[in-house]
Amino acid sequence: MRKLFSVLIMIGCASGAVAQPQLVIKGTVKGDLKGHNKVYVLGDGIKKDSVEIKNGRFTISMPWVKDAPPSIRAEYETTLKPIPPAFAIVADRPGTIYFDVTDLTQGLRSGKIRGNRSVIAFQDFEKGREQVRVEVSAIINERFPDKNQRDSARNVAFQELIQQRLIAYIGSFVEANADAYIGTFILGRYQSVLSAQELERLYNKLGPLQKRSPTGAEVEARLIGFKRAVPGFEVVDFTLNTPEEQPVTFSSLRGKYVLIDFWSSWCGPCKASFPYMKELYQKYRSDKFEILGISIDENKTAWLKELEKQQLPWPQVLDTKNVSVNSFAVTAVPTGYLISPEGKIIMKQVGFGEEGDGEIEKKLKELFGL
């Protein structure tokens, strides 16, 4: 009976729920924190939390979820910078990560990291990225010695050079880590700033396992979107829901010119364009023209709140199926697509001006003679 009882216990343990793998962060911090002794945990889909630094040490424990890296930020950092950058813990597996921070004025990201190669590699990437920014700043300061940071010509030159240097840096890092999780993570993180050609080139460098990862699949979807989002391509039919959870199928708009407006509740330029778009809608609305607003918001509540505030008169749906990426390769909002009555893309326009001189606005005038 004792043997049977022991066997039953073993079976019960084996059949019980498997504990979720944990990510543990253990840190040591030197120096006077002046009472600012908290470390915050944050991130998309992650419950905000905090722990205290006691006797120069802190420990954070949380479930490990791949492809959803948490970030950490020290309260002490917020006393030095208005919005200090958080440090992402890009761990490719559960386990314990060690931070040894000797100068908290440089942030938690400056600490020596042990325990996970992926997290260390991300720290190296961030250091290199910051170095690129420092080098570009030095070049621009030399090129514009008498201009301050608000000078438009200086800012344009800075943005052009930083984009050029960063894209090259990102490409080199991804190629060097093409078979590792961190390489795919960086490619996914910066996919929206890469050209279709560069994104495809780097995606093709990834190893088979990385291509099959969720991030790899996301990049592949954007590449498909790039190929679909060209003039003359027939829009792949999709169905998204209204605020009232009523489905709207894009093919139901066939026979009309449709202006698809991709926007979000957090996009200032999107909201700034709405008064002008209301005028445009009033001017062209008919059985031959419609606007379809597609929000890329991940927070449905924020979307509904903004809709109540804006009172937009055209149909609105929420992009819960990643249509903006896998069919239109949207990299910024607001972005508009003008679609023909046959369901084919006529043109794309990023942003809407108040002067009515955008390419889509010109095309509508041409089509409707107004």
From TrEMBL:
Pfam families: AhpC-TSA
Localization in the cell: Cell envelope
Alphabetical list of InterPro entries matching this protein: AhpC/TSA, Thioredoxin-like_sf, Thioredoxin_CS, Thioredoxin_domain, Thioredoxin_ResA/DsbE_sf
Principal location listed in the UniProt entry: other
Annotated transmembrane regions: none
Keywords: Cytochrome c-type biogenesis, Disulfide bond, Redox-active center, Signal
Signal peptide feature range: 1-19
Domain Thioredoxin: 229-369
PANTHER family: THIOL:DISULFIDE INTERCHANGE PROTEIN DSBE (PTHR42852)
Protein name per Swiss-Prot or TrEMBL: TlpA disulfide reductase family protein
Source species: Chitinophaga defluvii
Organism lineage string: Bacteria, Pseudomonadati, Bacteroidota, Chitinophagia, Chitinophagales
